Amino acid sequence: MSDDLGLRLTDRMTKSERDQNHPDSEPRNAATLMLIDRSGPTPKVLLGRRHHGHKFMPGKFVFPGGRLEPHDAEMSTISGLHPDIQTKLNTRVATPSADFARALALTAIRETAEETGLLLGVKRDEPPAIPGDIWAEFAKAKVHPDLGQIHFIARAITPPRRPKRFDTRFFTADATSVAHKIEGVVGPDSELVELAWAPISEAAKLDMPTITGVILEELLARVEAGMDNNLPVPFYFQVDGVFQRELL
């Protein structure tokens, strides 16, 4: 991933217009998942369009995701994170731990299920052990999350004095990781009103937040570089109004 890419993307982030006149707050840990379909000649990524009635990013195309919940760290899995991913997830955090790293990846998997109805993992004859109702759909479908299918692509912290702030980790997995689909999750009265599979190289043409477009470029660069887990992970954050891009 070239220095030119980093300079161009940080410049784009810095110049993006945003209202930073709100009371400041601590960013909440969050995770997002980018599903890639590589069954055709051009890799495609899954995006969802948010309901126009939402106060936060209404009508924008985004990746499914949300904030980390306490039970996420306790969810059972059939495999762990790659060691390189665990190390990067625990870099530049206040209290690093193996549980914290796996909780972030599990948050991305759970939020994808809640917002799209797509359950990632492996189906087995017996249901997984779940820590609470928040993971009940995985038990019903007998789908066991598989962290070995997950790649860590980027991290970004919402700038200060925004209405909502998140410290978001962006993960990806192949579409073949989908083990079950819950019907009726996406629709006119849901958080996501539609899903779209778009070529990664063209997806940024959709109406989306600046950070989503930037991470799409990072995803494309990672795909072209071979998706190895030992590749550096870009970390975006703002200092004195200027975005930085640090490699983890």
Jot down its keywords:
248 residues, alpha+beta, Nucleoside Triphosphate Pyrophosphohydrolase, nine-stranded mixed beta sheet, two-stranded antiparallel ribbon, 5 helices, 13 strands, 25% helix
Description:
The protein is α+β, with helices and mostly antiparallel strands. It has a single domain, classed as Nucleoside Triphosphate Pyrophosphohydrolase (Alpha-Beta Complex). The protein contains five helices and 13 strands. It has helices at 3-15, 83-89, 98-116, 136-141, 210-225; strands at residues 28-37, 44-50, 61-62, 65-67, 118-120, 122-123, 143-144, 151-157, 166-174, 178-181, 192-199, 234-239, 242-247. Strands 1, 2, 3, 4, 8, 9, 11, 12 and 13 form a nine-stranded mixed beta sheet that branches. The chain has a two-stranded antiparallel ribbon with strand order 5-10. The longest helix is centred in the middle third of the chain and has 19 residues, at 98-116.
Number of domains: 1
CATH class, anyone?
Alpha Beta
Strand elements, count: 13
Number of helices: 5
> Unreliable runs, pLDDT <50, ≥5 residues?
none
Secondary structure class reads alpha+beta
CATH homology superfamily name:
Nucleoside Triphosphate Pyrophosphohydrolase
Q: From the alpha carbons, calculate the radius of gyration and give it in angstroms.
A: 17 Å
Distance between the termini: 13 Å
User: What portion of residues belong to β-strands?
Assistant: 25-35%
- Main sheet specs: 9 strands, mixed
The share of residues in helices is: 10-25%
CATH topology: Nucleoside Triphosphate Pyrophosphohydrolase
Helix-strand sequence: HEEEEHHEEHEEEEEHEE
Shape: globular
Overall mean confidence score, pLDDT: 91
The CATH architecture classification is Alpha-Beta Complex
